[in-house]
Specification:
Strand order of the largest sheet: 14-15-17-16-18-21
Helix content: 25-40%
Structural class: alpha+beta
Shape: elongated
Mean pLDDT: 90
Order of helices and strands: HEEEEHEEEEEEEHHEEHHHEEHEEHEEEE
Number of helices: 9
Number of strands: 21
Largest sheet: 6 strands, antiparallel
Distance between the termini: 35 Å
């Protein structure tokens, strides 16, 4: 960001009275609400920036010492002033927290310097907490140590003071411009990840043996096993082939023909098991492919916040872990959804009684569990949209039933009866 923009932001922050909320919503982004206006401080080292938008979703909950210090010293603090640190791209927000015993003055220093971004909480010139601690020859940022100020650049600049309304509009435009670029980058990344997963499943499905071929294999193995038993005297030890009605068949090599017959009977048993379970494997793969196809379709038209929900975790990209059902995160809260009947049953069995259960009203659909006993309306709404989209619902309007897991009872398969439900009316487009 330019120095003029930071000067205007400092002037804008001075127009507010209190920090009504502050927390990280992702590793490098701090959500700070001043009075009733939401600001987001993005401390990405490549392109730090500040923007304004309505409530954004958390990617996870943060409880590091820095986050605890923000809650302790900045939450509900009154704003005294905000200014630039000379010609450095640093905002210094001075505030005071008052209670019935004492007043605590704190400096919140927001450093928006490329490749050296930081957010530091300071009291009496000493560092209380920081997003990033480091110790180098040029500068130290260490707990309980005096903060080393940065050297001032060798230039001066005359600033023009714009009105807070103009600056706020600029920060809103900053968000829109940023999102326009990031949205397509995020969409491309998610679609590539999902398409690769789908291709792998399609490959596994295509490699599944056909039932007709397995039946022929089973009958042939059974016939050979019986033939060997009835011709033990004519088959030599360690034989690998037999001729039946002029046709050559391969048999297991064994010290005695009877042992080769035993091997064939064991193969018959395994082939029978394959035949019995092949349809389950096929149904499982097909249900996961359908689920992924719905995810891909959802991602093509999803908003930025919806794409955040679909964004895979880093560990998921590095190594696909076996899971009994699909899981996503909405504002840091885990939600899980069954991709087929077996997963729906497992999901309901694993869920705690106080967790929230969602299902599309009067339409066969997956079960969705929110791993919490109480959530905000926006989390509930996004969970309902996620459920509808991943079930392939094409209607514009949909109704979701939701209740506590304790009021849901499995009857036959994944079919349930439930009580004390509430209705969630959603518009999908």
């Amino acid at each position: 960001m330019h120095l003029q923009q930071l000067h205007d932001i400092a002037h804008l922050f001075c127009s507010h009275k209190i920090i009504t909320y502050i927390a990280r919503i992702s590793d490098n982004v701090i959500h700070m609400r001043l009075d009733t206006t939401d600001y987001y401080i993005d401390l990405d080292k490549g392109q730090p920036r500040i923007y304004s938008h309505q409530h954004l979703l958390k990617t996870k909950q943060y409880n590091a010492p820095f986050d605890i210090a923000m809650s302790k010293y900045l939450y509900k603090a009154n704003i005294i002033t905000c200014r630039l640190d000379g010609m450095n791209k640093i905002l210094q927000l001075s505030c005071v927290y008052k209670n019935m015993y004492k007043s605590v003055t704190t400096l919140f220093q927001i450093e928006l310097i490329s490749r050296a971004t930081n957010a530091i909480i300071i009291q009496h010139d000493r560092v209380i907490a920081a997003l990033r601690f480091y110790d180098s020859k040029k500068r130290q940022v260490l707990p309980r140590m005096l903060l080393t100020p940065l050297e001032q650049p060798n230039f001066t600049k005359d600033f023009v003071t714009n009105s807070p309304i103009e600056t706020l509009n600029m920060l809103k435009r900053e968000y829109i411009a940023m999102q326009a670029t990031l949205l397509e980058q995020k969409r491309t990344k998610i679609l590539h990840f999902l398409e690769v997963k789908k291709a792998k499943l399609m490959q596994l499905l295509s490699e599944l043996p056909q039932i007709d071929a397995l039946i022929v294999e089973r009958d042939t193995q059974f016939m050979l096993a019986n033939y060997i038993l009835t011709h033990l005297d004519s088959i030599p030890n360690y034989a690998t082939k037999v001729i039946i009605y002029g046709k050559s068949y391969t048999i297991p090599s064994a010290p005695k023909p009877s042992m080769a017959s035993d091997k064939l009977f064991k193969q018959v048993k395994k082939t029978k098991q394959k035949i019995a379970h092949i349809h389950m494997q096929r149904e499982n793969l097909e249900s996961k492919i359908t689920f992924l196809s719905n995810q891909i379709l959802f991602a093509y038209h999803a908003t930025n916040q919806e794409l955040t929900i679909l964004m895979p975790k880093k560990q998921e990209v590095k190594k696909e872990q076996k899971s009994h059902y699909a899981s996503f995160y909405i504002d840091g809260i885990r939600v899980s959804i069954g991709r087929n009947e077996r997963e729906n049953i497992k999901l309901l069995q694993d869920s705690k009684a106080d967790f929230l259960w969602l299902h599309i009203c009067d339409i066969p659909s997956s079960h969705l569990i929110i791993h919490a006993n109480r959530v905000g309306e926006h989390v509930l709404r996004y969970a309902g949209i996620l459920l509808a989209k991943l079930c392939g619902i094409k209607d514009n309007k949909i109704v979701i039933d939701y209740t506590k897991r304790r009021f849901v009872k499995l009857t036959q398969g994944a079919h349930v009866v439930y009580a004390k439900e509430s209705k969630l009316h959603l518009q999908l487009h």
